[in-house]
Structure formats: C-alpha cells, structure tokens
Amino acid sequence: MRYLSFILFTAGLAVSLSAQKGYKPPVFEDPGRLEKIQAVIPEIERQYLELMEKQHIPGLAYGIVVDGKLVYSKGLGVINRESKEAVTAASLFRIASMTKSFTAMAILKLREEGKLQLSDPVTKHLPQLAGLKTLTTDAPPPTIHHLLTMTAGFPEDNPWGDQQLEDTDQEFLKFLKGGISFSTVPSSGYEYSNLGYAMLGRIVTQVSGMPYQKYIDQQIFKPLGMTNTHWEYEGLPANLLALGYRWEDEQWKPEPMLHDGAYGAMGGLITSIEDFGKYLALHLAAWPARDGAEAGPVKRGSVREMHRMVEPRLAANARDDDGAPCPTVAAYGYGLRIQKNCQGLTLIGHSGGLPGFGSNHTFAPDYGVGIVSFANRTYAPAAAANELAMRTLVRQAALKPRTLPPSDILIKRQQQVARLIQTWDEALGAEILAENFYLDRSRNHRKTEAEALLASAGKILSIEPIQPENQLRGAFILKGTLKDIAVFFTLSPEKDPKVQALSLRGVAN
Fold first, then answer.
1. In 80-228, which ranges are continuous DSSP H helix?
2. Which helix (H) or strand (E) covers residue 479, if one does?
3. Domain with CATH 3.10.450 in the chain
4. What is residue 393's three-state secondary structure?
5. Residue-by-residue pLDDT tens, the chain, 509 positions
6. Other C-beta atoms within 10 Å of 161: how many?
7. Helix ranges (DSSP H) in 189-329
8. Which residues contact 249 (CB under 8 A, 6 or more apart)?
9. Which CATH code fits 408-507?
C-alpha cells in the first residue's frame, strides 16, 4: 500500500474545536458577475420591447436589482396617452396583488412585536366572524397562517375581488358579519383568495390600533426609504401617475382608477420601480442565513419564512425556454409564489393584475438577482416576461449560485478521513468515528474495500478540496496516478461531530 504524507492543503488553517464556531455563509465567488449581467441587458431590453409590441402595452417600466441595488431601470412608452408623458423609473403604477407580500410582512412584524401568533384563529382578531361554520364539523378553524398561505378554504375570487378594492371599512365589516362561503375544508389545499388578504389587512388594523395603511407606511415603507409609494391615487402628480388602459376592438380604452379601501391590503398599492427596488433588495438581503446585526424593518428569518413553500404542486408537463421537458414544483408562501424547476432554479415573486394594470416581480435568492416590471394595460403578462428575463440572465451571464465554504469541522475531518482510509489506524478511528460506524459495517470489510481501491488508484498524489453539502456533510477526491477515489462522508449531530457514514468509489481521472 502506498501512503500519502498527511499534509494539510490548507496550510495555516486554525481548526476550531467546536463544530459550530466560525460558521461561514455561502458566498458569490465570481467578482465579475455584475459586468456579466450588464452585458446581457441588451437582450433583456429586446425582450421587453417585444412584449410591449405584441401585447399592445402603452407604457412599461422595469428594473434589475443585484446584491441590494437597483443596477438598471428603463421606461418604455407613456403613462398617459393624452399627455404623452414618458414612462420613467419614477413613474407610479398600481401594482395590484404585488401588495399582498407587504400585508404578509406587516403580519410578521406584529408577530415579532408579540401582538399575534400565526396559529391564532381568525376569529380571535375578527369578532365579526364569530360563529363561522366551515364545511365539516371536524375542520380546523381558519388561522392567520391559513390566510397567509391561501389555505383557509375560501373560493378563488379574482373576478369578484378586483371590484371590491374601494369598499369602505364599514361595508367590509358588514360583509364579514353576514357570513362567508367556503369552497374547501380549511388546511386541505391551496386556492387563491383576495378575501383572505383583505382579512389580514383588517387584522393588522385591529392588532396595531391604526389603519393597516398607516402601519405599513410607518413600519415598512419609512424604514426602507420608500417615499414614493402610496395607497390612494387622488392627489398624485399627473406627470408621474400611470393611467390604466385595456386593449379592445384594436384600440386602447381608458380604465377607471379604483380608490383605496378596505380591500387595499390585497391589491391597492401604487409605487415606482425606484421605490419597489428597495423592497426587492430587502428580500434578496435576507439570504443567506448568517450572523450579524438586523437591518430591519423585519428580521431576516421572517423574510425567509415568507419564501417557504406551502402545499407544493407539481407541474409535470412544464417545459424550459427551449421547449424541453422541465417539471417544476410551485407553491404559495406568505404573500409570494415560489417555484423550483428541474434545473434547480428557484424563483420567488408575485404578479399583480387589475383593470388597467399588470405587474410582477421575480427574484432568484440563490443568485442575488431580482427583476420587477409594471405595465398600464389590463392584466399585462408581466410574470412570463420577468421569468424569461431572469432565466436569460442566469443562462447568458453564466451566473453561479452562492458557494458554501466548508466548515472548520469538515476540513478537519476530511484530513483525518483521508488518513484513515490509507492507514486504518485504530487510535485515529477511535477519535473520529461515531459509535455506529463499525456496527453498520465491520472494520475488516471497510479496510479490505479501501485497500482494493487504493491499489487500483496507484500512487495517491493529492487530496482535493472538500465540496460541502452542508456544515456536516461533504465529498472530496483522492487523486491517484491511475484513477481517483471519490470519498463521501457525513458527521453525527454530537457536540464534537464524528464520522457516522463513509463511502468510497473509484472514478476515472
């Protein structure tokens, strides 16, 4: 047997005795990623111009956020067909259901303040629903969590919900008191509900002691510096406010603007690309999990909670941009939609559609990139455009997701495992192996397997850097003159993690 001298390729590394000290969050390793993104912008511009022409959109604004900054924005067309006022990044568009994630964030802020729990029954905060009866006697009562994830059992209500936007608080409370109908049993599945988010807005009002609009203004917009985001359109500058249109009978027809009201929590916001870019940056900045001070307005962990899939659904027949099969899993989180395709690309965001407007924001947390676009045409397909633009950026800019650095304990155990494979030193084994290791498979069998692989590999030349899966699991290569040996190991949950599983495999070099 040929032995490799035990040389640390990470010379000078001080290995911590405690596995959890010195956690290193994933990082971007490509210093030129922004320049690569900027090089793809001409293609992104072409896509949005094509969208405008094919979809008969009077005005369109879009922006790209990278690593917390709005790095590019563009206005196309006009916000007002009569005045011919050009679209800019400061133009104000109604963003409809993109409002929902702000309402969800307000709920999480109130939870952080200790004023509610997501497990609270809705009736705890909306006494108008006292005596609410679900479809079955054994159904759980709808909770705040159910409202957030659209699993409360309410019917899909997009056609109806759009016209409720300017209902007064009194009208909404009277509606609730009169009773509501369920389409499914609470917690049994997802169904898109504007009503549920109107209820969440009312809960924010009840719990905070102020109108939900004011609470969101104070607790979210103000800390983020979103000074050009509004609930009501009256009084906004005519040179900034986008008017809505529909394309009908081969012509644009004006759509009446709806006033703010009790349903505004589900779709009433008016904002600009410049302002929304700050909010999009907040979501991107929540990743990855890490130590360090919280910048607010809510904790990073709360923001990441909004991105978690609930009731995932498989789109088995989905296809990629080239038409090849690419099954995708999608779900709703807290005011956001989440999807992950067959290539591992996770996209998060939300669309908005009201008479006169269509909008969307889409971001890829693993890549630190987000795109937002607003249009002043009824239900303009902004989501498809943004998702295509995002996939184009990732593909053509050859973006790579964050790389997880190996933990100190993984690096330490890697060197010890590499030595053990070549020596089967009993003292070393007693130090680094978990109690199950030789019970699962005897030392003699493991040693015999390793010796055969080492003999086929020839002289071991080097130990390649470990590729971590997480803090306690990883793989590396022993480079040989004839072939390589792929090594995978995983550590135990003990305070001083030990090797609980080890696999070896010969691979061509």
1. 100-112, 122-125, 144-149, 158-161, 169-177, 194-208, 212-216, 222-224
2. strand 473-480
3. 408-507
4. helix
5. 444 443 333 333 334 344 456 688 999 999 999 999 999 999 999 999 999 999 999 999 999 999 999 999 999 999 999 999 999 999 999 999 999 999 999 999 999 999 999 999 999 999 999 989 999 999 999 999 999 999 999 999 998 988 899 999 999 999 999 999 999 999 999 999 999 999 999 999 999 999 999 999 999 999 999 999 999 999 999 999 999 999 999 999 999 999 999 999 999 999 999 999 999 999 999 999 999 999 999 999 999 999 999 999 999 999 988 889 999 999 999 999 999 999 999 999 999 999 999 999 999 999 999 999 999 999 999 999 999 999 999 999 999 999 999 999 999 999 999 999 999 999 999 999 999 999 999 999 999 999 999 999 999 999 999 999 999 999 999 999 999 999 999 999 999 999 999 999 999 98
6. 21
7. 194-208, 212-216, 222-224, 264-267, 273-285, 300-306
8. none
9. 3.10.450
Q: Tokens in use for 282?
A: 């907040």
CA torsion 342-344-348-350 (nearest 10°) is -20
State phi, psi for 492 to the nearest 5 degrees. -80, 165
Task: Say how many Å lie between the first and final Cα of the chain, rounded.
Answer: 20
Tell me which CATH code domain 29-403 carries.
3.40.710.10
Q: Strand, helix or coil at 121? A: strand
> From residue 69, how far is each of 55, 92, 160, 273, 368 by CA, in Å?
29, 19, 37, 12, 10
Q: Which residue has the tokens 């979501």?
A: 283
Amino acid at 503: S
- Nearest-angstrom CA–CA distance, 359 and 381: 8
Judge if pTM exceeds 0.85.
yes
Examine residue 237 and say whether the peptide bond preceding it is cis (omega within 30 degrees of 0). no
Identify the burial level of 239 via C-beta atoms within 10 angstroms of its C-beta, where 0-12 means exposed, 13-18 middle and 19 or more buried. Answer: middle
Tokens of 218: 């104070």
As annotated, the residues of the chain forming the CATH 3.40.710.10 domain(s) are 29-403
Rg (CA), the chain: 28
Which H or E run includes 461? strand 460-463
Q: Do the beta carbons of residue 473 and residue 489 sit within 8 Å?
A: yes
